[in-house]
Amino acid sequence: MGAPVRDYALSCGMSVDELVRQMEGAWGFTAGKLAEGVRILGEMVSDPNCVKFLSFTANIVATGARGALKELVKRRLVDVILTTCGTLDHDIARSWREYYRGSFLLNDRELHRRGINRLGNILIPNESYGIILEEKMQSLLAQLWEEGYREISTRQLCQLIGERICREDSILYWASRNQIPVYVPGITDGAVGYQIWMFSQTHDLRVNLLRDEQELNDMIFDAKRTGALIIGGGISKHHTLWWNQFKGGLDYAIYITTAVEWDGSLSGARAREAISWGKIEEKAQHVTIEGDATILLPIMVASLIDRIERGEVQV
User: Fold this and answer.
1) Among candidates 6, 77, 12, 60, which has minimal Cα distance to 35?
2) Cα–Cα distance between 130 and 166 in angstroms, integer?
3) What is the pLDDT of residues 150-206, one digit of tens each?
4) Which end of the chain has fewer surrounding CB within 10 Å, N or C?
C-alpha cells in the first residue's frame, strides 16, 4: 500500500502551489494526477538538455486560458509550439476585438440571425472574428507580397503575424519576440488559412509545409531529450508525438484531456498507449490528467510559477 490519504487543510491566503502540494497527499482521484503533472512539468522545465514542446487546440484560446498559455511563452518555459489554425484566428481576433461570456443554452438560430457565433459558452460576433481577420490578414499578405514573399512556411507566417499584427496580450506576440517557433500543420483548416487561399486567387503565394517538417526533423534529431505539455488532441497532439518517435520518444509527457479512451481515438489515447508506438520513451515520466483545461491549466501554470519564483524550479 502507498501513503495514507490526507484531508486538505485549507486556510485564508494560501497560495495556489500550497493547494497543489496538498493534492499530493489528499489524492482525490484527478487531484493526485494534477499534482504529479506539475511535478513533471517542473522537472521538464528545469532540464537544460530538453527541448520542450507545447501542444494545444484552438478552443481554449477563445477563453481566459489564453493568458496561461501566453505566460508559458512569455517566460520562455517552452521551446516550440504545435497548434491548429484556429489558434491563429482567435489570437489575432482577440488582439483587436472582444469575445463575450454567454451560455451553452442560448438559442442558436437567434444568434445566427444576429451575426453572433457560439463557441461553447463564449459568444463571438462576426465583427470580432471573420471581419477583423479578413482586414488584418489581407493587409499583412499584401505587405508580404510587396516585400517579395512568394513562398512561406507556417513557422514564418506565425512569426510575422506575431511581429506585425498581434498585441502584447497574445501568444503569437510573445512567441515572435522570444523566437519560439510556432508550427501549424493544418494551416488551411481555419479563417487564417482561408484568407491565405483567398489571397492566392490573385497572387501565386504558396505555403511550404515541408519546410516546417524539415525544421521539426532537425530539432528532434539534435535533441538529447524532449518533453511535451499536450493539451487536448487532434492534429497538434499527433504531430508532436509523431516527430518525437524518431528520437525514441518523449522523455517527459503531460496530457490534459477530456476525451474518452474506449473509442480508440488519438485524442482520447492515454500517455501509456504512446509508449507502444515509441512516441513516449518506456522510462519517461508521464501522466494523463482528465479534465477541463480551462480549470486545470491556470492552476498548473500558477503553481509552476510559484516554484520558479522560490527557486525550486530552475529556468
Assistant:
1) 6
2) 16
3) 999 999 999 999 999 999 999 999 999 999 999 999 999 999 999 999 999 999 999
4) N
pTM above 0.85, yes or no: yes
Q: Cα dihedral angle (264, 290, 181, 196), rounded to 10 degrees?
A: 60
Which pLDDT does position 2 carry in this prediction? 84
Q: What mean pLDDT comes out for the span 3-21?
A: 96
State yes or no: is 247 an active-site residue: no
- Domains defined along the chain, listed by start: 49-97+127-294 (3.40.910.10)
Output b/e per residue, 21-43; b: 16+ Cβ within 10 A: bbbbbbbeeebbbbbbbbbbbbe
Q: Rounded to whole angstroms, how far apart are CA atoms 174 and 75?
A: 9
Task: For residue 264, give the amino acid letter.
Answer: G
| Per-residue pLDDT at 1 exceeds 90 | no
User: Helices marked H in 4-127 — which ranges?
Assistant: 16-26, 30-46, 66-74, 85-96, 108-113
What whole-number distance in Å separates Cα of residue 135 and Cα of residue 213?
Answer: 29
Find the catalytic residue in 52, 70, 136, 279: 279
Q: What separation in angstroms does the CA of 13 have from each of 9, 25, 254?
A: 12, 20, 28
DSSP tally for the chain: helices H, then strands E: 13, 11
